[in-house]
Amino acid sequence: MAGPLASFALVVGLLTLTPGLDTALILRTAVLGRRRQAWGVVLGIQTGTLVWGTASAAGVSVLLTASRLGYEALRWAGVCYLLWTGARMLRSRHRQPDAEHPEEDGPGGGWWAGWRRGTLTNLLNPKVGVFYVAVLPPFIPAGAPHLAAGVLLTSVHVAEGLLWSAVLIAFARTLRTRLRRPSVRRLLDRATGVAVLGFGAKLALGD
Protein backbone atom coordinates (compact mmCIF):
# COMPACT_ATOMS: atom_id res chain seq x y z
CA MET A 1 0.00 0.00 0.00
CA ALA A 2 3.01 2.35 0.33
CA GLY A 3 3.05 3.34 -3.33
CA PRO A 4 -0.71 3.87 -3.71
CA LEU A 5 -0.82 5.79 -0.41
CA ALA A 6 1.91 8.18 -1.56
CA SER A 7 0.28 8.73 -4.95
CA PHE A 8 -3.16 9.26 -3.44
CA ALA A 9 -1.72 11.64 -0.86
CA LEU A 10 -0.28 13.77 -3.66
CA VAL A 11 -3.56 13.87 -5.60
CA VAL A 12 -5.80 14.74 -2.66
CA GLY A 13 -3.13 17.08 -1.27
CA LEU A 14 -3.38 19.24 -4.37
CA LEU A 15 -7.17 19.09 -4.09
CA THR A 16 -7.01 20.12 -0.42
CA LEU A 17 -4.90 23.18 -1.25
CA THR A 18 -7.35 24.33 -3.94
CA PRO A 19 -9.61 27.09 -2.51
CA GLY A 20 -13.26 26.16 -2.43
CA LEU A 21 -16.40 26.19 -0.32
CA ASP A 22 -14.72 24.40 2.60
CA THR A 23 -11.92 26.98 2.69
CA ALA A 24 -14.41 29.86 2.63
CA LEU A 25 -16.44 28.44 5.54
CA ILE A 26 -13.37 27.72 7.68
CA LEU A 27 -11.79 31.13 7.11
CA ARG A 28 -15.02 33.02 7.66
CA THR A 29 -15.75 31.24 10.95
CA ALA A 30 -12.17 31.56 12.22
CA VAL A 31 -11.83 35.24 11.30
CA LEU A 32 -15.03 35.98 13.23
CA GLY A 33 -13.15 34.75 16.30
CA ARG A 34 -15.15 31.55 16.79
CA ARG A 35 -12.27 29.12 17.12
CA ARG A 36 -14.32 26.27 18.60
CA GLN A 37 -16.93 26.65 15.90
CA ALA A 38 -14.22 26.81 13.23
CA TRP A 39 -12.79 23.52 14.44
CA GLY A 40 -16.32 22.15 14.47
CA VAL A 41 -16.63 23.11 10.79
CA VAL A 42 -13.28 21.41 10.08
CA LEU A 43 -14.23 18.18 11.85
CA GLY A 44 -17.66 18.22 10.20
CA ILE A 45 -16.09 18.53 6.75
CA GLN A 46 -13.72 15.67 7.50
CA THR A 47 -16.61 13.59 8.86
CA GLY A 48 -18.33 14.03 5.52
CA THR A 49 -15.12 13.12 3.69
CA LEU A 50 -14.76 9.94 5.72
CA VAL A 51 -18.38 8.99 5.11
CA TRP A 52 -18.08 9.56 1.35
CA GLY A 53 -14.80 7.64 1.15
CA THR A 54 -16.16 4.71 3.15
CA ALA A 55 -19.36 4.68 1.10
CA SER A 56 -17.36 4.69 -2.12
CA ALA A 57 -15.17 1.81 -0.91
CA ALA A 58 -18.30 -0.10 0.07
CA GLY A 59 -19.92 0.55 -3.31
CA VAL A 60 -22.72 2.80 -2.05
CA SER A 61 -21.53 5.83 -4.01
CA VAL A 62 -21.49 3.74 -7.17
CA LEU A 63 -25.22 3.16 -6.71
CA LEU A 64 -25.71 6.90 -6.22
CA THR A 65 -23.95 7.79 -9.47
CA ALA A 66 -25.80 5.00 -11.28
CA SER A 67 -29.16 6.32 -10.09
CA ARG A 68 -30.00 9.58 -11.81
CA LEU A 69 -32.94 10.20 -9.49
CA GLY A 70 -30.83 9.66 -6.36
CA TYR A 71 -28.09 11.94 -7.63
CA GLU A 72 -30.54 14.69 -8.59
CA ALA A 73 -32.33 14.47 -5.23
CA LEU A 74 -29.05 14.87 -3.36
CA ARG A 75 -27.87 17.62 -5.71
CA TRP A 76 -30.99 19.73 -5.19
CA ALA A 77 -30.88 19.17 -1.44
CA GLY A 78 -27.34 20.54 -1.57
CA VAL A 79 -28.43 23.49 -3.71
CA CYS A 80 -31.19 24.41 -1.25
CA TYR A 81 -28.85 24.11 1.73
CA LEU A 82 -26.14 26.27 0.14
CA LEU A 83 -28.62 28.94 -0.94
CA TRP A 84 -30.14 28.98 2.55
CA THR A 85 -26.70 29.23 4.17
CA GLY A 86 -25.59 32.00 1.82
CA ALA A 87 -28.79 33.97 2.40
CA ARG A 88 -28.35 33.72 6.16
CA MET A 89 -24.82 35.09 5.89
CA LEU A 90 -26.01 38.01 3.79
CA ARG A 91 -28.64 38.88 6.42
CA SER A 92 -26.39 38.37 9.47
CA ARG A 93 -25.69 41.18 11.92
CA HIS A 94 -22.78 41.37 14.34
CA ARG A 95 -22.51 43.08 17.67
CA GLN A 96 -19.32 44.49 19.15
CA PRO A 97 -17.36 41.52 20.52
CA ASP A 98 -17.37 40.88 24.24
CA ALA A 99 -13.84 41.51 25.49
CA GLU A 100 -14.15 38.67 27.99
CA HIS A 101 -15.36 36.18 25.36
CA PRO A 102 -13.73 37.23 22.10
CA GLU A 103 -13.89 33.77 20.57
CA GLU A 104 -17.62 33.21 20.87
CA ASP A 105 -19.15 36.60 20.14
CA GLY A 106 -22.66 36.71 18.78
CA PRO A 107 -25.23 33.96 18.34
CA GLY A 108 -24.60 30.66 16.61
CA GLY A 109 -21.20 29.96 18.17
CA GLY A 110 -20.07 26.59 19.44
CA TRP A 111 -18.47 23.37 18.31
CA TRP A 112 -21.72 21.56 17.55
CA ALA A 113 -23.05 24.31 15.27
CA GLY A 114 -19.81 24.27 13.29
CA TRP A 115 -19.73 20.47 13.05
CA ARG A 116 -23.31 20.37 11.80
CA ARG A 117 -22.61 23.00 9.15
CA GLY A 118 -19.42 21.32 7.94
CA THR A 119 -20.97 17.85 7.82
CA LEU A 120 -24.10 18.94 5.96
CA THR A 121 -22.09 21.02 3.49
CA ASN A 122 -19.94 18.03 2.61
CA LEU A 123 -22.57 15.28 2.64
CA LEU A 124 -25.01 17.30 0.52
CA ASN A 125 -22.42 17.78 -2.22
CA PRO A 126 -22.80 14.79 -4.58
CA LYS A 127 -19.66 15.84 -6.45
CA VAL A 128 -17.60 14.66 -3.48
CA GLY A 129 -19.14 11.20 -3.89
CA VAL A 130 -18.53 11.25 -7.64
CA PHE A 131 -14.91 12.25 -7.00
CA TYR A 132 -14.37 9.28 -4.72
CA VAL A 133 -16.05 6.88 -7.13
CA ALA A 134 -13.76 8.07 -9.92
CA VAL A 135 -10.50 8.49 -7.99
CA LEU A 136 -10.46 6.00 -5.12
CA PRO A 137 -10.72 2.58 -6.89
CA PRO A 138 -7.59 2.97 -9.09
CA PHE A 139 -5.47 3.46 -5.96
CA ILE A 140 -6.67 0.26 -4.27
CA PRO A 141 -4.17 -2.54 -5.08
CA ALA A 142 -5.48 -5.74 -6.58
CA GLY A 143 -6.14 -8.30 -3.89
CA ALA A 144 -6.30 -5.76 -1.05
CA PRO A 145 -9.43 -5.71 1.15
CA HIS A 146 -11.50 -3.12 -0.70
CA LEU A 147 -13.25 -1.53 2.27
CA ALA A 148 -10.20 -1.44 4.55
CA ALA A 149 -7.96 -0.03 1.81
CA GLY A 150 -10.58 2.58 0.90
CA VAL A 151 -10.92 3.74 4.50
CA LEU A 152 -7.12 3.90 4.82
CA LEU A 153 -6.81 6.04 1.70
CA THR A 154 -9.65 8.28 2.83
CA SER A 155 -7.93 8.71 6.20
CA VAL A 156 -4.94 10.18 4.34
CA HIS A 157 -7.26 12.77 2.79
CA VAL A 158 -8.75 13.52 6.21
CA ALA A 159 -5.29 13.93 7.79
CA GLU A 160 -4.19 16.35 5.07
CA GLY A 161 -7.43 18.27 5.42
CA LEU A 162 -6.92 18.64 9.17
CA LEU A 163 -3.35 19.88 8.74
CA TRP A 164 -4.30 22.44 6.08
CA SER A 165 -7.29 23.58 8.14
CA ALA A 166 -5.00 24.17 11.12
CA VAL A 167 -2.91 26.46 8.90
CA LEU A 168 -6.03 28.33 7.74
CA ILE A 169 -7.30 28.83 11.28
CA ALA A 170 -3.90 30.02 12.49
CA PHE A 171 -3.73 32.48 9.58
CA ALA A 172 -7.22 33.76 10.30
CA ARG A 173 -6.35 34.23 13.97
CA THR A 174 -3.53 36.60 13.05
CA LEU A 175 -6.05 38.80 11.23
CA ARG A 176 -8.77 38.64 13.86
CA THR A 177 -7.70 41.71 15.84
CA ARG A 178 -7.87 43.80 12.66
CA LEU A 179 -11.30 42.50 11.73
CA ARG A 180 -13.20 42.89 14.98
CA ARG A 181 -15.27 45.89 13.89
CA PRO A 182 -18.90 44.95 13.14
CA SER A 183 -18.75 46.74 9.77
CA VAL A 184 -15.77 44.65 8.69
CA ARG A 185 -17.44 41.48 9.90
CA ARG A 186 -20.57 42.29 7.97
CA LEU A 187 -18.44 42.77 4.87
CA LEU A 188 -16.79 39.40 5.49
CA ASP A 189 -20.19 37.74 5.84
CA ARG A 190 -21.40 39.40 2.65
CA ALA A 191 -18.36 38.19 0.72
CA THR A 192 -18.64 34.65 2.08
CA GLY A 193 -22.41 34.62 1.55
CA VAL A 194 -21.99 35.61 -2.09
CA ALA A 195 -19.34 32.88 -2.50
CA VAL A 196 -21.65 30.26 -0.95
CA LEU A 197 -24.53 31.40 -3.16
CA GLY A 198 -22.18 31.09 -6.13
CA PHE A 199 -21.31 27.51 -5.20
CA GLY A 200 -25.02 26.76 -4.83
CA ALA A 201 -25.77 28.23 -8.26
CA LYS A 202 -22.89 26.28 -9.78
CA LEU A 203 -24.22 23.05 -8.26
CA ALA A 204 -27.74 23.88 -9.50
CA LEU A 205 -26.45 24.38 -13.05
CA GLY A 206 -24.58 21.09 -12.86
CA ASP A 207 -21.20 22.65 -13.76
Automatic annotation (TrEMBL):
It is found in: Cell membrane. The chain crosses the membrane at residues 6-27, 39-67, 155-175. Keywords: Cell membrane, Membrane, Transmembrane, Transmembrane helix. InterPro entries: LeuE-type (IPR001123). Pfam families: LysE. Its main location: membrane. It is a multi-pass membrane protein. The keyword Transmembrane applies. PANTHER family: ARGININE EXPORTER PROTEIN ARGO, ARGININE EXPORTER PROTEIN ARGO-RELATED. This is LysE family translocator. It comes from Kitasatospora phosalacinea.
